[in-house]
Amino acid sequence: xDHIAAHNQSSKVAMPPTKLGNTTPNTLHQRMSEIVxxxxxxxxxxxxxxxxxxxxxxxxxxxxGGMRGIVGLIWEVSLLDPEKGIxxxxxxxxxxxxxxxxxxxxxxxxxxxMLWLLxxxxxxxxxxxxxxxxxxxxxxxxxxxxxxxxxQCPKTLHPMTxxxxxxxxxxxxxKFAKAYASGVPKDTYWQYYFxxxxxxxxxxxxIAARIYRNVTRAEGAPPVxxxxxxxxxxxxxxxxxxxxxxxxxxFDDMLRxxxxxxxxxxxxxxxxxxxHVVSSALADPxxxxxxxxxxxxxxxxxxxxxxxxxFIVKMREELGDNASNDQVEAYVRAIxxxxxxxxxxxxxxxxxxxxxxxxxKEWAEMHLPDDPLLxxxxxxxxxxxxxxxxxxxxxxxxxxxxxxxxxLLNHYGLxxxxxxxxxxxxxxxxxxxxGTLWARICGLPIERPKSLxxxxxxxxxxxxxxxxx
Length: 469
Ligand SMILES: CC(=O)SCCNC(=O)CCNC(=O)[C@H](O)C(C)(C)COP(=O)(O)OP(=O)(O)OC[C@H]1O[C@@H](n2cnc3c(N)ncnc32)[C@H](O)[C@@H]1OP(=O)(O)O
Ligand SMILES: O=C([O-])CC(=O)C(=O)O
Hints:
Residues 1-27 are annotated as: Disordered. By secondary structure, the protein is mainly α. The chain is 57% helix and 2% strand. It folds into 2 domains: 1-14 and 27-50, no CATH class; 61-450, Citrate Synthase, domain 1 (Orthogonal Bundle), CATH 1.10.580.10. The chain has helices spanning 2-11, 27-50, 60-64, 93-96, 111-120, 126-139, 144-152, 159-170, 175-181, 189-216, 236-244, 249-261, 270-280, 285-296, 304-319, 325-337, 355-367, 372-389, 402-411, 420-441, 454-461, and strands at residues 78-81, 85-88, 91-92. α7 packs antiparallel against α8 (159-170) and α13 packs antiparallel against α14 (285-296). Residues 1-25 have low confidence and may be disordered. Bound molecules: acetyl coenzyme *A and oxaloacetate ion. Residues 300-302, 304, 336, 341-348, 388, 393-396, 400-402 line the site of acetyl coenzyme *A.
């Protein structure tokens, strides 16, 4: 896009950092304030030059088929290639992970670096990532009544329901909702959205750790109560681990990796798209993200990581530790025959092994080579793709991100499978809030695709069928 770069040379206008109330401008905000006008000018040029470009035909099957293959969204922060997997601001995971900054402790990237990249398009320096880490630690405060609400939840309420409940409650402190109600101009919306997004990301470890501590407490023990707080000397992920009660450096690193790689998968997946559509009505980031979490909690989407570990554990109980591949295959066939899916396998867009699976499998092979569940993950990889590919019905027989994550968490003592999707959700906040913030920066309108009834399909294409409904 040389013409765009050239245009930028002549039109570079640095927007002054905006102070909102008592909020001190921060480095990420300053960088975004410089980037936003240039990017908006790029987009104006793109729309002028290519606005009438055709993105493809839509068939009736596509409309009945979950809109698979329809390109109908702009999502600035990531793009999914069916063969190569996710690219985050054009970087593939294997290329990006070694380049993202490490913190003061640990050897895995800080998720803060990923957030910076998603928002700015630039890999941050270590200082920038540490600055963002400190800023998140400062913003990490949850209103006491929301802590009380969580403490009132029955232990048996699914952790994802508790997460959605708490995030909705945090809407009470939305700066965007307040600013919108006061009638601020449209081109300043994103500034308030930015504030809410950072506040929400900062609050999530506190909320999620409280949920973990509450659902894992001993029978009869009191809930967490007041006093859970972030340590400003720790990074976002380190704080999360510590507040959950995990103390090991290796767990911290595993969590950093988990939170970094689960962040985003372009705009059309259920969680990102939900956030996008809810936010397009100018619902604030809290309401949009809570809705997004409800989508992530579905078993065909994020909950598959819970389902996947349960599947592996149950298979181990039935087959023991020395099962042959033939036994694993017979087990898998029986599950498919009973009409259930094999969790962790298949994908709506990917057509090859998910690089996020590979990355977690490599971590596991290095850090927990003798874990008996890891052996089963390997056997499933040898068996399932071949079985699923038979008959040609399943479009992608290869493993997705959820096929290996539970084994890692379980190995380090995080055994509560119904909590796994909360970790996914905390990570997903980085991506969906970045993508959604960029939608507000671009001023994208309320989303409203057209729908049809089956009678209308018949009317459009011919009278030979007449649905009796
Ligand atoms: C973070 C994520 O969201 S990654 C995905 C996590 N989800 C899972 O791992 C659950 C298991 N996988 C699945 O259910 C699917 O592969 C999905 C939901 C991920 C993708 O769904 P689709 O795009 O509809 O897949 P596809 O077009 O290949 O499906 C065709 C058929 O194969 C079946 N199929 C797809 N994957 C599997 C699987 N892992 N096991 C058994 N059957 C499967 C579908 O259920 C569908 O059957 P149907 O025609 O009888 O309804
Ligand atoms: O892309 C999808 O549809 C599902 C997925 O893997 C994700 O959201 O991480």
